[in-house]
Amino acid sequence: MVIRHRFSAPAVLAFGAFAAGAIGIASALTPEFADRSRLVRGVLPPGVPDAARVLALAFGILLIWLSLGLARRKYRAWKLAMALVIGSAVLHLLKGLDFEETTVSLMLLVALWYWRDEFVARGDPKTRWPFLQAVLGLAAIGLLFWLRSSDHVGFDERIEDALIVVAALLATRALYFWLRPFAQRARSSPEERAAAEELVRAEGHDSLCYFALRRDKSYFFSPSGRSFLAYAVISGSAIVSGDPIGERAEFVELLLEFKRVALARAWRVGIINASEELLPVYRQVGLKAWYIGDEAIVRPAAFSLDGRAIRKVRQSVTRLEKSGYRAHVVDVADVTRAQRAEIEEVSCQWRGRAQERGFSMAMDTLFACAGSVIAFAEDASGRIGGFIHLVPSPASGGYSLSTMRRRDDVPNGLMEFIIAQVLAWAKEHDVPEVSLNFAMFGRILRADDESPRHKRALRFALIKLDRFFQVERLHSFNRKFFPEWRPRYFCFERYSDLPLLAVHYGHVEGFVVLPAPWAKTTDLTVA
Question: For the chain, what is the mean pLDDT?
Answer without folding.
Answer: 85
